[in-house]
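sanity check both lines:
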Amino acid sequence: MRYLVKARVKPGREKALLAAIEKGTLGRGSVAGDEYLHNMRLARAAEDGTSQWIEVCFCRVPLEEERPYWEEFFELISVKDAHARRNCQDLNGEKPWACCDCDCTKELEERMQAQGCSFLERLADVG
């Protein structure tokens, strides 16, 4: 399933987060692998200090495995379905692991890229 994640970097964690991204250690030890770095490259920052990204997760509970890695740096504000669950080929059993190469959130991702600014650029300015 794909989720729309909205979060805010915890106060004082900006430099550590930027270092983890630059060193490629963000999410080290997670089964999600490089997905964390991919998410940060595409994340968007809003004027209110929040950030948003689309995240693929196969856990029964959204971000169950990823949550501890994110919560080291972020306050998670919301985690919502990024598209209708009934259309998720992984969830409905049509195609296991379909989210890995699915384009179901392509339009949402394109709209997000037109909003706010790059999260990484904003983080570099702060960090």
About this structure: The chain is about 30% helix and 20% strand. Residues 27 and 69 are 6 Å apart (CA to CA).
